[in-house]
Amino acid sequence: MKQLLELIIILFKRYRIIILYLIIGGTGAAIDFLLFIALTSYFHFTYTLANVISVSAGITNNFILNSFFNYKVKDRMFTRFLMFYGVGIVGLGISTLMLFVFIEILNFPVIFSKVLTILIIPLIQCYLNTRFTFKKGVVKNGVPVNSYASLQRRGKYKNSN
């Protein structure tokens, strides 16, 4: 039993970001789903408007929770939010394309296709958000850290002219 607990701790430490990202994403999905139901069933919004509002609420929830509890970054919040929201929209586009391929071309059942996208898209979004949105030290004094100007300033890249 002790070995199992130690293994769980090791795995959690190794995959912490992905695990928390998926847990937080689950809360965002619940907000999205419940708000969508409320807006369409009780407030009689059209499903398209309700979807835009509910998806935006889920993305906003996920951004706030990921910022403070998962990636623990609090700088450049507006810029990071725009990047996170953009990744959310990219995920929406990819999932829509995947649904088309699964349903219209491969003739998979609709629900099965949706489940496949739910399993794949969060992994893509986690990668993109880890790599870009929540990357620490991306900008220093208004210049991207790994940019040509930044590397020159730090003496890591010298012009041969």
Please tell me about this protein's structure.
- With 161 residues, the chain is mostly helical.
- It has a domain at 1-72.
- The chain is 76% helix and 2% strand.
- It contains 6 helices and 2 strands, in the order αααααββα.
- It has helices at residues 2-14, 16-41, 47-70, 77-105, 110-133, 148-153; strands at residues 139-140, 143-144.
- The protein has a two-stranded antiparallel sheet with strand order 1-2.
- A hairpin with a 2-residue loop joins strand 1 and strand 2 (143-144).
- The longest helix has 29 residues, at 77-105.
- The radius of gyration is 20 Å and the shape is globular.
- The protein starts with a helix and ends in an 8-residue tail after the last helix.
- Mean pLDDT is 84; it is low at 142-151.
- Low-pLDDT segments, ≥5 res: 142-151
Instruction: Report the order of strands and helices.
Output: HHHHHEEH
Class by SSE composition: mainly alpha
The total beta strand count reads 2
Number of helices: 6
What's the arrangement of strands in the largest beta sheet?
1-2
Helix coverage percent: over 70%
Rounded mean pLDDT is 84
Radius of gyration: 20 Å
Gap from first CA to last CA: 65 Å
Overall 3D shape: globular
Largest β sheet strand count, sense and barrel closure: 2 strands, antiparallel
- Measured by DSSP, the beta-strand proportion falls in under 5%
